[in-house]
Design brief:
The chain is an alpha/beta fold. It has 15 helices and 9 strands. The chain has helices spanning 3-10, 36-52, 74-84, 102-115, 132-139, 144-149, 151-163, 182-185, 205-214, 229-239, 263-281, 291-296, 301-311, 319-333, 347-360, and strands at residues 22-26, 57-60, 89-96, 120-125, 198-202, 218-220, 251-259, 315-317, 337-341. Strand 5 (198-202), helix 9 (205-214) and strand 6 form a beta-alpha-beta unit.
Length: 371
């Protein structure tokens, strides 16, 4: 693989006055009174806005059995987004590797690479992205710890499928992920020089250390594990060994941020998103409630404590407040890239938030984002 090309695909370019490259993480959230079709239409609108405003990449995350999150099939959504964009990098943030056979992921992302050459990322996590029962249904097994424990071996297998370089004598030496490098070795074959760069995702130290040891880029889920962000990034940097992919560490963090024209509206939207998390954490997942429903909800003392703790890590308010919060977070963590996820009931609110953040940093002016 061409080292310079892959490094260029990983490292973003800072736009405007942003401290680092800015990107988007999309959970394809579905609000009460809305459909999955509405949510996917919003995803296209945000992806097109992000592309036109200079955001570096747009990732979708694998979740299952959550009515308010319509991102169960990242590869399918990414194919849809590829058809509606031209330049922005598209990827998974992430695909949960233990839920899938490595060959299937190699085939899916090889297909995406053929659709959008040179702009596909493959972010991998080792959590199930759901509850234990759903994970068992996905994996056809009750041995759920096995997948997480075998993550390094699964990662090595997936990498060999992507590179088509199993050694002679290996049981999979004659098995090829198509589309993929094997096509270039077939008579008359011509193959793209790109293959999706692998990122490791994490919310603790395991993937941070593994990414460092392997010399891979690392994405940390600050948006739901803020207390572990700095220790995990420190561990990643301390563990880092230069590789053919990177000569120095490169870490992005997922950040929950919502900017609105009115500070009160930001609080209302964030409260609704937090109520959705309360329900999810207590085994009652549903659609993202409206702000009106959240304001009328009677929170128990325990729920209120959770809400306060959760929202303490959500950067929200006016655009100036959000810009200050993002700047401070980047300085505190030293993150090389900020990947913003804006959770709200309505797609129009999320779209407006990304537009306001782009304006705040003087990113290139948007073009038409109509679908």
């Amino acid at each position: 693989m061409d080292e310079t090309a892959e490094t260029g695909e990983i490292r973003g370019t800072t736009q405007g006055t942003a401290p680092v490259p800015l990107s988007v993480l999309d959970l394809v959230t579905v609000g009460a009174g809305r459909t999955a079709t509405d949510a996917l239409r919003t995803s296209v609108q945000i992806a097109r806005l992000a592309e036109s405003r200079g955001f570096h990449r747009y990732w979708v995350a694998e979740h299952h059995s959550m009515p308010g999150v319509a991102s169960s099939s990242p590869a399918v959504i990414l194919a849809h987004l590829a058809a509606h964009t031209d330049r922005i990098r598209l990827g998974s943030g992430g695909v949960m590797l233990p839920n899938h056979a490595p060959l299937v992921i190699a085939e899916q992302f090889g297909t995406l690479e053929a659709m959008a050459p040179g702009r596909v990322d493959l972010g991998l996590g080792r959590a199930p992205g759901t509850d234990g029962a759903t994970a068992a249904a996905l994996r056809r097994s009750q041995r759920l710890n096995e997948g997480a424990d075998d993550f390094p071996e699964q990662l090595a297998e997936l990498t060999r499928f992507l590179d088509d370089d199993f050694p002679d004598g290996h049981p999979y030496a004659r098995i090829h992920a198509v589309p993929g490098p094997v096509q270039s070795t077939s008579p008359g074959g011509v193959q793209s020089p790109h293959r999706p760069p692998i990122w490791l995702l994490g919310s603790s130290g395991f993937s941070a250390r593994l990414a460092g040891v392997l010399g891979l880029p690392f994405a940390f889920a600050h948006h739901f594990s803020a207390q572990n962000t700095v220790p995990a990034l420190d561990l990643y940097r301390e563990s880092f060994r230069p590789s053919a992919v990177l000569d120095a560490p490169y870490a992005l963090i997922g950040v929950s941020a919502l900017a609105t024209d009115d500070e009160r509206e930001a609080r209302r939207q964030v409260l609704a998103a937090a109520l959705n998390m309360v329900r999810l954490r207590t085994g009652r997942p549903g659609l993202v409630p409206t702000p009106e429903e959240a304001e009328a909800y009677e929170f128990s003392p325990m729920e209120r404590e959770f809400i306060d703790s959760w929202n303490a890590n959500v950067i929200h308010g006016t655009v100036d407040e959000v810009r200050t919060g993002l700047d401070d977070l980047q300085k505190r963590t030293g993150a090389d890239e900020l990947m913003i996820t804006g959770n709200a009931h309505g797609g129009d609110v999320r779209l407006r938030s990304y537009e306001l953040i782009a304006d705040a940093y003087g990113l290139p002016k948007a073009h038409d984002t109509e679908v």
